[in-house]
Design a protein that fits this description.
Shape of chain B: flat
Order of helices and strands of chain B: HHEEHHHHHHHHHHHH
Helix content of chain A: 40-55%
Oligomer: heterodimer
Helix content of chain B: over 70%
Number of domains of chain A: 2
Structural class of chain B: mainly alpha
CATH class of chain B: Mainly Alpha
CATH class of the largest domain in chain A: Alpha Beta
Strand content of chain B: under 5%
Largest sheet of chain B: 2 strands, antiparallel
Distance between the termini of chain B: 11 Å
Number of helices of chain A: 18
CATH architecture of chain B: Orthogonal Bundle
Largest sheet of chain A: 9 strands, mixed
CATH topology of the largest domain in chain A: D-Maltodextrin-Binding Protein, domain 2
Radius of gyration of chain A: 23 Å
Largest interface: A-B, 55 and 64 residues
Chain lengths: 438, 305
């Protein structure tokens, strides 16, 4: 007797869950009280994701507590909100229902999407004093490429990274290579990779599953043509130099056979490196602490090998001031952002996480100097910053990133020629971006 | 589980007196309300949103009629997603049903180890899908995952199961079959309890062997259960997403992207609510068609009445 209603229910419940999900009713922002202005204390909420290993949510709470103690007129409540994806969803749905946080750490590449939805405020508007201007201009230019649009700054670099080459010094020695001269050019990368490839060990692993565009981007930059420029509505996927770069990138596994065939997982590469399955890997500078901890051999850290020039995209998250339409809270949010990105705090966060210090003054602090003395590998990413370029970020950025990733994966696994894959990707991207005037 | 008699009974009682009708309405009101608020209303909202362009280029939604639907027709990823979904259903539903039925028949007898095997086969069902997917992700790891290790013992090739478009979808299907067979088996076991021993004894007297008995008695008398399992399997297949999120994120090159994951991607990664709503409407229509087919078929597969 129960049969019919039960499956009808199941169908309907499924449809329900789905539509509920879409209508965004499922999201409640933080649950911290911020309505009702208290006399003198501005109550702010601060949403942040944790994207690297370690007890970082606790470290963040500690940092925020320090701020609260130093600023009795502001009280910030940190809200750990999952990874970058869930934090972004939470901020967007919260904004639609009037429950957005005041400050959030979100991907630097989401800046255009945040702007298109009128979710964030220009930082320049707050930085009135000369001191503030000096602070605004203190960050590494490579990080600002993904934080500004048409000369206006919308995000403050907070937890930023680049790609790095990690290599096993013992295996270099065994293969007759000098463990202190990692490959500096594409041809050296292939030659060293061939020397290091043997039964049970690949010469090189570059993660390629998921968002492949980030690991492919260095090759395009190094070949002299980044896949994106300053404009937010234009990409350069089908440029000859990008096509050539993709050919080289794919050949590493298809022709040179120094990489395993098929796609390599983001988390698989460091595991394979630690267990000796891969002698060199490309990975985020943010993985440095974890890789040094798990490897039982001397780990070399180097800049990515270049071609016509060295290069890497940046990555990671910025601090954003959310458009809450409450002037007093927005001003307090700016103060908090300024504090979070000050040299001492940024140094503490960089050491704790492995992210790169966001400005030169960070490296002038005593604790950073002490840290680099103990862990000189931590300085490679900073040195590489002078060659770093803009990460792929446009309007509809996540979809554009997906389009380029899919093109890369087609070449890597389906025998599609780079020109064909990239031309199709360019057309798809152009169609999407044609909706945006600038 | 004769559903037809239940329906008839209700109909009679409903017509008898107004008071009984009122009581029935009151009893039904809470579930009706929940159904209305959380099921029917969101469906209406989804249909409404599907008629608007609502994405990063249109932060304020713009009415566009059926533009979202016609755009889907030109979307190569959507075509691929639908193809993957159909392949997935064809590859998992019949196989899972057959395995579940055979296992149920085997475990319907009482041997000493029967409880152990029942437990062993049911245990994947109890595992949360996310944990199961994480375990399988590790098992499918090239070189040192257990699948490749076992293959290597027999001199087999090392395969990057989830990293190649040729194998990724099959790898996900295999994992899904493993996960759901135990669940379906329980329904078949219940169905077998209802058949009883009489038909088999009669068949044995007539000289039918076990294979003949399975084909001519077990399979037809399990038809109502099969229909039920089929519907559950279909609905589950259309709604599967956890495995994709954990194991492939729809890759490589959209080779494992399926309808619900694509909806999720459009809504939350690409913030394209219009397109996501249009896709949801398509999913709802498909699920409704499945439900209607089931109601129609339900009347024809019962042997008892």
């Amino acid at each position: 007797m129960k049969k019919l209603p039960r499956h009808m229910m199941k169908v309907l419940v499924g449809a329900m869950a789905l539509t509920l999900l879409l209508s965004g009713c499922g999201n409640q922002a933080g649950g911290t009280p911020k309505t009702g202005q208290t006399k003198s204390v501005e109550k702010l909420t601060f949403d942040f994701p944790v994207a690297v290993a370690g007890p970082l949510a606790q470290d963040m709470t500690q940092l925020v507590n320090e701020f609260n103690q130093a600023n009795p007129d502001i009280h910030v409540t940190p809200v750990f909100s999952g990874d970058y994806g869930t934090t972004m969803t939470k901020v967007q749905t919260g904004f639609k229902s009037g429950n957005a946080p005041d400050v959030a750490v979100l991907l630097s590449t989401d800046m255009n999407t945040l702007l298109d939805n009128h979710l964030i405020l220009p930082i320049n508007g707050f930085a009135a004093s000369q001191k503030d201007q000096k602070w605004l201009n203190s960050f590494y230019p490579a990080f600002m490429a993904n934080s500004t649009l048409n000369g206006t700054t919308y995000g403050i670099p907070f937890q930023r990274s680049t790609l790095l080459l990690y290599y096993n010094k013992n295996e270099f020695q065994k293969a007759g290579l000098n463990p202190n001269t990692p490959p500096k050019t594409w041809s050296e990368l292939v030659a060293d990779g061939k020397a290091l490839t043997k039964a049970g060990q690949w010469g090189l692993e570059i993660p390629t599953s998921g968002l492949t565009y980030w690991e492919f981007q260095p090759f395009a930059i190094e070949n002299g043509q980044n896949v994106v420029g300053d404009a937010a509505n234009k990409v350069y996927f089908d440029q000859p130099k990008v096509v050539q770069a993709l050919q080289f990138f794919a050949d590493l596994s298809l022709k040179d056979k120094i990489e395993p065939p098929g796609l390599i997982g983001w988390a698989t590469a460091p595991d394979d490196f630690a267990s000796g399955k891969a002698a060199m890997i490309y990975h985020s500078s943010g993985s440095l602490t974890q890789i040094l901890k798990t490897a039982k051999f001397p780990v070399g850290v180097a800049m990515l090998p270049g071609n016509v020039r060295p290069g890497t995209p940046t990555g990671g998250g910025n601090l954003y001031v959310i458009n809450t339409k409450n002037k007093a809270r927005e001003k307090a949010a700016f103060k908090f952002v300024k504090w979070m990105s000050s040299p001492e705090v940024a140094a503490k966060w960089a050491i704790e996480t492995g992210y790169i210090g966001t400005s030169p003054p960070v490296y002038e602090t005593a604790q950073m100097k002490e840290y680099l003395q103990k862990t000189p590998q931590g300085d490679v990413a900073r040195q590489q910053l002078q060659y770093a370029a803009k990460e792929l970020a446009t309007h509809d950025g996540q979809e554009i990133q997906q389009i380029l990733s899919t093109a890369c994966q087609k070449v890597l696994t389906q025998n599609v020629k780079p020109l064909e894959a990239l031309t199709a990707a360019q057309n798809q991207a152009d169609a999407l971006l044609s909706k945006f005037k600038d | 589980m004769p559903s037809s008699t239940g329906q008839k009974g209700q109909k009679k009682r409903g017509g008898k007196s107004g008071r009984a009708g009122l009581r029935a309405a009151l009893l039904l009101a809470p579930s009706a309300l929940i159904l209305l608020i959380f099921t029917l209303w969101p469906m209406v909202v989804a249909v409404y949103h599907s008629l608007f362009l609502s994405d990063n280029a249109h932060p304020v939604p713009v009415f566009a009629g059926l533009a979202n639907f016609t755009a889907l027709g030109r979307d190569p990823v959507f075509v691929q997603v639908m193809r993957n979904t159909v392949l997935f259903i064809v590859g998992t539903v019949p196989v899972s049903m057959l395995i579940a039925m055979v296992l149920a028949v085997a475990l319907n007898r009482r041997y000493r180890l029967t409880p152990f095997f029942r437990l062993a086969l049911f245990h994947p069902v109890v595992l949360p899908m996310v944990s199961a997917a994480s375990i399988w992700l590790f098992m499918y790891t090239p070189d040192y995952g257990i699948v490749d290790k076992v293959l290597a013992l027999f001199g087999g090739p090392q395969i990057n199961w989830l990293g190649e478009p040729g194998t990724a979808l099959s790898a996900i299907m295999l994992m899904t079959i493993w996960k759901q067979v135990g669940y379906f088996m329980i329904f078949y076991l219940a169905g077998l309890q209802n058949i009883g021993q009489d038909p088999y004894e009669a068949a044995a007297v007539d000289g039918a062997g076990p294979v003949k008995a399975f084909r001519s008695i077990t399979v037809p008398l399990l038809m109502p259960t099969s229909l039920f399992v089929f519907i559950i399997a279909m609905v589950d297949a259309f709604q599967m997403i956890d495995q994709l999120y954990v194991m492939t994120q729809g890759g490589p090159s959209n080779g494992t992207n399926m309808l619900l994951y694509y909806i999720y991607q459009q809504a939350f990664a690409f913030s394209n609510l219009g397109k996501a709503s249009a896709l949801s409407v398509i999913l709802i229509v498909i699920l409704l068609v499945v439900a209607v087919l089931q109601t129609l078929a339900d009347k024809r597969v019962h042997y008892e009445s």
